[in-house]
Amino acid sequence: MKTMKLGKTDINISRMGLGTWPIGGGPAWNGDRELQSSIDTIRTCPSIGVNVIDTAPGYNFGNSEVIVGKALKGMKREDVCLITKCGITWNRKGSLFNKVGDVQLYKNLSKESIMEEIEMSLERLGTDYIDVYMTHWQSVEPYFTPIKETMEALNELKAAGKIKTIGAANMTPEHIKEYLKYGQLDLVQAKYSILDRAIEQDLVPICRENKITLQAYSPLEQGLLSGCLPRDYVPTGAQCNKKWFQPENMQKAMNMMDNWKDLCKKYDCTIANLSLAWVLAQGDFFNLLSGATTVDQIKENVKSAEVELSKSDARLMREMAEAIDD
């Protein structure tokens, strides 16, 4: 597995990490995963060169963190660059976010909330420090917290050794500029795939300019770009309201992937490998998260980091994706 520097730090991270939202299970994923399979998937990561494990309290109300914590008990802590997040709560008030099952989630990035959240995350994860602590979603009214206050809390946690670096997800260039006024920002997480390229307009340039690692989540569009779904697939759970899982769009995407078959032969790889390799080909400051839930899946996905697309093939894939994007 190829590695890269995390932002402006000296921390080496694998170009691909494991995202554990699906491993957390719950209503968003139509129930819980088999626990031992989830633990085995996480514990396999270092042996195949993956050292980034991403989780969050908001993934099934802390269950993802609990599972990661169970897995960490059988691992060397220094072998893992552990990412977790703050700002999405269900046990204290904030600005309305969304509902998962019958439980309302809230956005809250106040200093008080962050200081409580970190302690609960450390306990669930069974560790005394987090490598990258991220704000999960940015603060909004009516419980708006200035970024200055949020960064004050994060910088205090960093000085205390409870976190090593600061990251932020789901943000605008204006947010990034504000974060940078008050400290170092080493990781920005955003949704990005060959079918969802919106961040290229503004987020990509500012991350490149400020030497911030840009970590793509949902690079396989929740499984659509795996190439494994049948033509008559019926989306479930978190997929249902997504653009590319609407019937007409899903068929267009599948037609596009059919046209990738020659490229798969050329690079001796799968559709999923090709999808992930395309993201990594967009710049050496790009990182990505694989939402694998089994050992076989993560082993298959890491092959993507070894696929080196030519510029002409990466451009061809982009043109195909642009052609089906209304």
UniProtKB/TrEMBL annotation:
Is Oxidoreductase one of the keywords? yes
Q: What is this protein called?
A: Aldo/keto reductase
Give the GO molecular function terms: oxidoreductase activity
What InterPro entries does this protein map onto? AKR_Detox_Biosynth, NADP_OxRdtase_dom
Report the domain of life of the source organism. Answer: Bacteria
* Record key words, sorted: Oxidoreductase
In this protein, which residues make up the domain named NADP-dependent oxidoreductase?
15-320
What start-end ranges are recorded for coiled-coil regions in this protein? none
At the highest ranks, the source species' classification is: Bacteria, Bacillati, Bacillota, Clostridia, Eubacteriales
Pull one GO CC term from this UniProt entry. cytosol
Species of origin reads Clostridium estertheticum
